[in-house]
Amino acid sequence: MDSLPGHLLNKVLFKTDLRALAMLCCANTSLQSHIQNPSFVSEYYSQIKSSLLHISTYGSPYLVYHHPHGGSRSHKTKNSLMECHIFGCCSGLLLLFIDDRLCVTNPIRKKFRFLTRRDKRKQLGLAVNQLDRTTNNFKVVYIFEMANTDETKYGFEINAGDSWTCSKTTLTCHTSNLDDRMKNPVYLDGALHWLRNDGSIISFNPKTEKARLIKIDFPQGLTSRTLFAPGVNSLTLVSANEEVIYFYALKNILSDSKWVLEKQIQNGVIDKNIVSWYVEAYNGKCLVLRTWYDGVVHVYDLIDNKWVVMGSVPTWCDANRDFFLFTPSSSSVVGLDEILACGDSLRLIMGLVDGSLSEKGGEATC
């Protein structure tokens, strides 16, 4: 392969899955240099589509993975042997609670790190920052409320792979609970963001350890089916009814913040006869809706401007699901290694994601 012209070599490598690329990097130094070139990385990852992971909100031994090729056989299920939670995903990493411990893993590179915390508190966020063109680092942040009387005071604990440290940073603001309806914190532009019931947003930068409260109200007319999610360049609220889906982007995040209606589309898959349906996930490129009566997962591709069917949720799944749009990555991550033995549960999950990458199917992607 070393003798191939660059454009022909790229054609071959673009058809190679991430696990095989990682193995090539380990086996051949010249290919490693080519694969890690920023121009190749940018073009390769522009072709990778997100997959969909989902699991019971309350934890489950069953994790379902929809690879980005549609069809009736588009999902795989693994019994993880022990109860598992997914608390977040970012830049190809998963934050799990499995084998009675928190764990950060890159399923493609088979790298992982178990963290010392053993409880299942959900106020956790996963942040991944790029150190150079081939290497990232990660930090897990836990937000907690400190004793206070008339106001709410927040503290933060941070783990970069070795131990938990309590940040000297605290944030005191008017009282309002974190909004459980909006599920997980959103990581964008180096900061984690937690939405509160009154519409305000707590922002925390794990690198600088600076925290701030973004004082803002919800836009008028939000429906009960609203999702807090990352957009392409902004925090986003996706609000849907049976006819229209609205996308609100948060503008002027540093000062005079406001929600701006950036886009709206017709809801092409739901009608008034369907009572139970959910807005499940959004990443700026695609939107995922799920109908409860038949378990069908519908995806709207914002680039192609069309609805497709990604697959279906197994009938035995409960109604309360946590969905994650997950894009694999072969990047090296500081703090992940195999210094501790990988249990059967984690090995099954890594194999689930890795084994689905090479499957072929329909055209539904996101």
TrEMBL record:
Q: Where is the F-box associated beta-propeller type domain?
A: 81-231
Q: Which domain of life is it from?
A: Eukaryota
Residue spans making up a coiled coil are: none
Q: Which NCBIfam families match?
A: F_box_assoc_1
Protein name as annotated: F-box associated beta-propeller type 1 domain-containing protein
UniProt source species: Brassica rapa subsp. trilocularis
Q: State the taxonomy lineage.
A: Eukaryota, Viridiplantae, Streptophyta, Embryophyta, Tracheophyta
The primary gene name is A09p055590.1_BraROA
